[in-house]
Structures are given as C-alpha cells and as structure tokens.
Amino acid sequence: MAAQAAPAPADDLIEVTVDGKPVKVPKGSNVLQACDAAGVDVPRFCYHQRLSIAGNCRMCLVEVEKSPKPVASCAMPAGPGMNIKTSTPLVKKAREGVMEFLLINHPLDCPICDQGGECDLQDQAMAFGSDRSRFTEVKRAVVDKNLGPLVKTVMTRCIHCTRCVRFAKEVAGVEDLGMTGRGRDSEIGTYVERMLTSELSANVIDLCPVGALTAKPSAFTFRNWELASTESVDVSDALGSAIRVDARGPEVFRVTPRLNDAINQEWISDKARFQVDALRLQRLSQPLVRGAGGGLEPATWPRALAAAAEGLARARGHELRGVAGRLADVESVVALKDLLNRLGLAGVDGADSVLLVGTDPRAEAPVLNARLRALALAGVPFASIGAPLDLTFPLLAAGDVVREGWNGFAVLADAAGTVGALDLGFVPGAGARGVAPRAVYLLGADDYEEGDVPADAFVVYQGHHGERGAARADVVLPGAAYTEKFGTYVNAEGRAQSTKAAVGPPGAARDDWKVLRALSEVMGAPLPYDTLAGVRARLAEVAPHLARRGALEPPLWLGADALGVGGAAGKPAADPLATRVTNFYQTDAISRASKTMARCVRARQNPVPGL
Amino acid sequence: MSGVTKALAQGLGKQTWREAVSNGGWKVLIDGNLGSTLVEHQPGATLVGTDKHGNRYFEKMDTQVGRNRWVVYAKASDYRGQDPANVPAEWHGWLHASVDVNPANHDFTAPIYASNIVGNSTTTVSRYQPKGSWFKEHKRNWLKYQTWTPPKA
Amino acid sequence: MTVQVLSVASRAFATNSHDIFNIHRHEPHNNWETEFDFTKENMAKAKEILSRYPENYQASAMIPLLDLAQQQNSGFLSLAAMNRVAEVLGVAPIRVYEVATFYTMFNRSPMGRYHVMVCGTTPCMLQGAKGIYEAVSRHLGVVYGQTTPDKLFTLSEMECMGACVNAPMIAVADYSGGVEKFTYTYYEDLTPEDVVGILEDLKAGKKPKVGSQHRHNAEPSGAVADGKWVEDSPGANITLRGPPPGPYCRSA
Questions:
Q1: Are A583 and A604 contacting, i.e. CB atoms less than 8 angstroms apart?
Q2: Where is the composition biased (Pro residues) (chain C) (predicted)?
Q3: From CA B113, how far away is CA A391, in angstroms rounded?
Q4: Which class is domain C114-227?
Q5: In angstroms, rounded to a whole number, what is the distance separating the alpha carbons of residues A166 and C94?
Q6: What CATH class is the domain C40-102?
Q7: Chain B and chain C touch, per 3+ beta carbon pairs within 8 A
Q8: Domain ranges of chain A
Q9: HEC secondary structure over A310-370
Q10: Residue A385's beta-bridge partner residues?
Q11: What is the architecture, at CATH level 2, of domain A105-215?
C-alpha cells in the first residue's frame, strides 16, 4: 500500500514505447500495465490488478518488437526500450483467433443472461468476434454448481479465467473454489457440493467477466442499463466502504463496490451488497401513534408530532433520554443532541504489528479482514486476545506482538453510526446516571439495552424499519434509510463520508434531521437550521473534523475521558473478551429485515450438505 | 353426401351412431371437420385409449400419414372443449408420432417438472390476469415497498 | 442399457479419464461417511516421500501421495482418500481435487481388479489398436469406461505410453494386491489373439509374458501388420515391409 501511494523514484522507472508513444512505468510492471499507463486499452479476461497473474485467457495478446510471436501482455514483464504494438494486423488477427476459441463453447444466451449489457465477453466480441461461427460440432455443457444463496452459476458460460478461484484463494482466504478436470472438460467449481463460506464471496460476481457467476437474489429482475447509479457509502458495518447504489425508479436493486484504495479497495461484504432487498420490506412509511386500544395506529404527521411533543414534554431534565442507533447519521444525531439540549439537557495499514482485542473482523468488517490478511501474508505479525477465531490467516500469541515502541492500537467499532455519535460527544452526561428516564427518544435504536427504556417511559421511535424499537414505541416517526438520504457517517478509522440519496423515502417518511427539526418546532424550541447545509454548518461548529469529508482523522474520543465510564475503568471484565457481532449477516434493522440475509444465515448453518 | 351414406351403410354401427349424435353428430351437416372425424375416419379406426379428461384417441394406420392418429375431445359439443391444450403430454407424444408407445397401457411417470394439464383457461374465470388488470384481486398496486404492520396490542 | 448409452456418449465428450464427471456425486461407496486412512506402512512411505521435498514445497508430493492412496484403496481415489492426502500435505482439499481430476491415471470411481488400458494414439492406431480394442471389448463384453460384472476388468483408452516401436500395446494395472503387489505392466506387439490370451491368463491368475509378445526387445525382427505378426526376412534389418514407394507423382 505504501508503495502504491508514494511515486516511485526516477531510477526505478523504465521507458517503453507503446504504439509509438514513449511511456515511463515502474520496474516490475508488465506489458499490460505499460499499455494501461499509455492509455491504450488492451482487452482482457483473466488479468485483474488485485489478483495474481494467470495468463490463461490469451485475450491480451500484443506484438512486441523482436518477439517472433504475439505475447500475452499480462504475463510479460516490461523491459527497458521495449517497443509494444497493439494495433497491428497481427495483433488483431491473434485476438480474433482467441475470441473465436472462447466463443466456441460459450452459449449464445445473451438475451436471457443477467450479465448482458455489462459483459466483458459481449463487449469484446463486438470488437474481435466474428459474425458467424465455423464451429460445427457439439458445444459442451457443464453442470451448474450450487454455491449458496448469493451466487448463481451458469457454468456453461464460464470461460475459465479463474478470477474467482484466485479471489477465493488470495483475497478471501477461503479455498473453496478450484478448477477440476482438464481440457474442454475443465470446470470451475467446488468438486463437492458446498456453499462459499466467505463473507466476501459475492465479489466474484463483479469479477466474473461473463455471466457464469451472477447475483442469485436479484436474478432476472433488471437490466443494467435500466438502473440509475448513485455513489454512496455503505453503512452495514463501521468500515464505510465506497459503494454504488443502483436504483430503478423508487427501488434499489443493486449495490456494487466503488474503487477506494484507502478503505475497501474494490471489495464489499456480502451484507453490504445483498441487504438492500430489505429496503422494500418492513418499512415505516407513515407516522404511527399508540391509540386508545393499545395498538399503534396510522396517524398524520401533525398528529404524530403533537403526540410526541406532548409525551416528551412530560419528562423533566435528565428524565429525557436519547438513544442513537447503529445506523444513525451524524446530521440526525447532532439535531437530536441540539433538540435534547434545548429541552434542558446538558488507521490500520500503517501498523507494524496488530493486536485484535475482543473483536472478530471477519464478522464485523469482512473487507477489513481481507486487508488485514494481506498484511499478515506480507509478514506483519497478528495476534488476538479474546475468543478463538478463524480469520483465514495465521495468528500468533499476543506476547509476540506487543513490544517496545508498538504502534497498533485501533478500535474497531462494529456499527456505522457509532464513531460519528461518539465524535459528537453523544454520550450520557454525568447527571444522567442513576436517573430513570420518563421519556426516551430512540433514533433508529433497536439494539438498546432493556434498562435504558423503563416499562413506564414514553418512547418515541424514529427510524426506517419496524422492529423491536418501533414495536415498543408510543409514537413512531418514519425516517429515511441510508440509500434515501444525504447523511454523514464516520467510519472506524475516523473518516467522515457522505451517503447520497439514490431513491426517495417511502410514503410519508422524511429525512431524519427534518423530522427532528419539525418536532423541535412543535415542542416550541425550534432548531436554528432548516437546510442540509445549515445542519452541516452546525456540525462543523460541534465537530470541525466532520466537515472535512474523506479525510482521515484521529478519533477524538479515544484516550479522552469522553466515554464517561471512568468508574468501571481499570477493572477487568468478568466475561471473556468477545465480539458483539455473533451473526455477521444480521446486525442491524436493515439486515435483520432482509430475506437474503436470512437465507444466508440458514445456509451457513449447513455449508456442506451431507457433512 | 354420398360418402356419408356409404359410410353409414358400410358399418357405422348403432352404438357409434348414437355416440356420434350425442357428441353433437347432427352438426356433421354444418361442420365438415367433425364430419370427416366421425363419419369418414371413425369406421374401421381403433380406439387406442382414453385420457383422464375423457378425450378419446383413435388410430387407423392405413390412412394418409399425418391423419392416421387423432383425438375426439370429450366435450366436443362445447367450443371450449375442443382444446388441444387438454391433451396430456404422453398422449401428445403419441398423437404426433414422437413415440409409438401406447400411453393407455404404459406406466407413464410424469417428470417432476410436469404441470397439471388443465387445458386452456382463456375465457374462463381462472384465466391469466396481468398485474394491474381490472379483474385482478389487488388491482393496480404499484407500491414498491411493504409497510411494517405493528404487532397487535 | 442406460449406463451403456451414457458411457458411450461420454467417450465422445470426455477426456480419456475413466470417470465421466469432474465433480463429486455422493454414492453408497463414496460419500462423507466413507473412511480412508493410510496404513501404518504406507504412512511411513508417505513420510519418506514428503522428505524428498523441501519444507516449503511439501505440496509437490501431491501426485506421489495420491498414487499411493489410489494403490491402497483398490485402484480409485475416494473423497476420503483425497481429503486425507490434503490433510497430510496441509493444503486445502480443493487443491487435491484439482490434481486428481486433471490426471487421467487417477481414478475417482471404483475399478475392477485389472485396469486394462488400450493405447489409442497414432502409432498404435496405425498398427491396429482398433482391432485390439474390438477384441478386448468383445471378449470382456464392455466398452471404454466400463467394468465387467465380475469386477475383474475395467477397460479404458489411454494416450501414448511411449512404447510406439512395439505398437500396438496395452497397459494393465493390477490393483488386487494393494501397494506392495501393485504392478503396472505393458504388453506389446499385440495381435487380437494375443490380447485375448493375455486376458484369459490374467483371469486364470497366471502371469502372461510381459513386454513384446513376439520378440525379445525392440530389435528389428518383425512387426504387427493387419492383426498378424509378420517376421522380417532374414538379413533385412529394416522395419519396412518392402521397398519404400517413391512420391506418387513420380511413379510411372
């Protein structure tokens, strides 16, 4: 990573000529990278910049002067003074030959293929494919594999680039996939039927250059050209992976990773990718007020706000409590904090060794785990304190890691909203301890402690999914999910990033800060901002670092007494240190509502049928 | 008309004639196809079998190829009864000479993916209705999300 | 009947592997419950094989170990056998499956006692391998990929085994005696009568003549032609059956 960031010194560069254009590339680059550096597009299937080089698709053939044959540019190191030609008749003919061989056994089922429209083979066949076939024999057919509830396979379409095999081995660290057989009978698969046991498994869908591996949950539901893309940030874990949200009309259909070298490279976890089906299920789309019969009944916004204001006004001082949930964005947290006050209330890659304390990065942030794994394989010693883990890479004893001058302390938060709320100082004030609250404001909080919400308290729940919190509430105010609002989230490293609205909130639901702003008006203590820019200006006042988007900030709350639990500090906990995330697939209101995630949980209980 | 007379004379037994009439045989006068089925073909044809819907299948191998196997629908008098979609898969194969196995005395195991043959339901109540059709139970529900239902108090 | 059709069809689509599928299907004799472990002697052998390779290249011992496991397991690699090899090597099982499915000499379905492999590569074909196959097939009543009902012979086709000078030839692997008595024998210079005799001898428990059936080694004393052994005329130390013809365009 460090090498990637710093430009290579001049003497580590070599000069090659690509199509008559001189270009300088670092030593050790291959010819394909040199062509990329020169801005020349070389077709490819098996080469991927984050995976090892296989050189088996032969699509990237180029002509190199003094070489008798076309060379596979991905597997050929660039040498100084090399003269590379990519647009000669020889190259064209060679690529056409390769394409013809690839198409021999590829079915002509583009009209019913989910990859259609974003298929490398389809695109490149437009450039190098023949318009008719010379093949008169029988096409081969391959048995489809069952890889679990996320990845759908149509193995006859496979062109054996082995990207998925290399991903499983090198990045995910779960060696499930392989290529069995030989020649035209070779097939990608697991040999014995079993599901992919990696939390990153669905990245093979993006890697697959053809339609052999596609998304099972969203099979046959959309064509990629129907979707409108929005660049956003994932909130399913505290890593804040860069994602692209693809929506058609009011529905989110797909989440794919975006390139962000500093955070997720180009991978996202299965949860980030496939929990989006829950954005259509169990939604809070209208305000609800607990009626005379004891049940929640639909209400208009004015009525609901009035009911909430009336209930909250009953609490005095510290009897009013706010709880921010796992998915609360910083804007709504600051609005809630301001409201409560008005009502009378007070980096990982630089590490030289890593100690994991009571955490399971594989469950809490699988993409981070893949990067830790890369570090571990590069020789950085890792150790873990807490419950025994299977992290797909070897761990040492803690004593071997903690040394003099050690720089590895980082706290991995397990929810997207946690760090932001802590950065804003959204922690109980000193006076609040020991006072039983009479009114509680749950801001998307479904994982609250039972003691925080006494049975006789008046509860307002504001959120986007109906669950434990909404069921307990006396007034439910519908808010927006992360794909429906412009919200700032601070990731575990302290990086403030913004989600962007890809679709609108359903029904009568509104942006969370707007709901709080409206409530403050009704309660007679109006907040001083009424635009998003206003909220963010206020945010910059409270926590200036949150206004600097994308920049890495040292977590303010670490080391300070901001956590405010000094009384308990220093006393070792009686329970063994363990991760709070026991079920990776279901951690928050969205993923718990997702049918796909439920299927994953079920499949995980029996990953190898019959064993 | 002479053909009919001849056929009647040649051996259209009483039984067959009664059957023909009960199936709407009088329509022979206005329906040439039915006439050719009942009067021209049936004499000398073998009744090969009957399927679960009551359709009867005939064979007369010395007639012209392509017209040597045929079906007489159970509800031939009803225009909706004359429905090729009523023919089960095994009989379809026999009719179209895909197989020579007589499904009547062959133990036919339906594949797991076979659907129940109910015939064409066009113009009946159970016909297919596209989403948004006026006759659909929850017509025109274009809501793309499902609202949470609070638990009962 | 179905098996026969499937098997014949598979010859048209598969490589020369004995197995039809390159994926595992649970069967009564080969599933998760099937057990396999190296015997004590074979484990010592496996350790010896492993010691031939450097510490960081232990996976290089995969092919010898799979061979060992196959010999111990009466000629085929069950799922358990492959898993055990993976365990011994410390690699993921899929890496072993990949190797075992790639090489046609690893069998993944049960074999007869003798694995009869008929060479089908060009030199043997030119010298009458087709007749050899037909004779074997007729004699045993099976086609490529099948095992006789008495579980004695499994018939396969194989690519060139390098004995082209004594073409046509067959190889027979004897899996009846485990690792110690395992033999892999070539029978060369075959006529259809020879090969039937060899099969009969094997069936009777006798040991047929190994190597060329009609000469000592590969000395130029004759060759198989049209399913018969043809001696060279004395003194003519050539393998040609007559003077070589000139190019057809020159012949008068």
A1: no
A2: 242-252
A3: 43
A4: alpha beta
A5: 13
A6: mainly alpha
A7: no
A8: 13-93, 105-215
A9: HHHHCCCHHHEEEEECCCCCHHHHHHHHHHHHHCCCCCCCCCCCEEEECCCHHHHCHHHHH
A10: A357
A11: 2-Layer Sandwich (3.30)
Judge: A178–C13 Cβ closer than 8 Å, yes or no.
Answer: no
Q: Which fold has domain A13-93?
A: Ubiquitin-like (UB roll) (3.10.20)
What is the distance between the terminal CA atoms of chain B, rounded to a whole angstrom?
A: 80
- Give CA torsion, residues B86, B87, B88, B92, to 10 deg: -150
Q: Torsion-angle region of residue A76: left (phi > 0), alpha (psi -120 to 50) or beta?
A: beta
Contact A367, A241 (CB under 8 A): yes
pLDDT digits (tens, 9 = 90+) for A323-372: 888 898 989 988 998 888 888 654 333 344 455 555 666 776 677 777 77
Task: Name the residue among C164, C150, C77 with its Cα closest to residue C119.
Answer: C164
Spatial separation of the C-alpha atoms in residues A27 and A170, rounded to whole Å: 23
How remote is the C-alpha of B86 from its chain's centroid? 4
Please give the full DSSP string across A145-211, using - where no structure is assigned: P---SSEEE-GGG-----HHHHIIIIII-----EEES-GGG-EEE-SS------TTTTHHHHH-SSS
A391-447 tens-digit pLDDT: 667 665 554 544 444 444 455 667 777 777 777 777 665 556 667 788 889 998 888
d(CA A310, CA A523): 8
Q: Least CA distance to A186: which residue of chain C?
A: C22
pTM for the full predicted model: 0.80
Q: Supply the pLDDT for residue B131.
A: 74
CB A238 within 8 A of CB A413: yes
Residue reference for tokens 């638990």: B151
Q: Do the Cβ atoms of C104 and C158 come closer than 8 Å?
A: yes
Cβ-contact A481, A590 below 8 angstroms? yes
Give the dihedral of Cα atoms B65, B66, B71, B72; nearest 10 deg. -80
Of the given ranges (A23-37, A401-415, A443-457), which has the lowest mean pLDDT? A401-415
Nearest-by-CA chain B residue for A476: B150
Q: Do residue A186 and residue C32 have CB atoms under 8 angstroms apart?
A: no
Q: Which residues of A touch C94 (CB under 8 A)?
A: 175-178, 190-191
Give the nearest partner residue to B147 out of A283, A293, A471, using CB atoms: A283
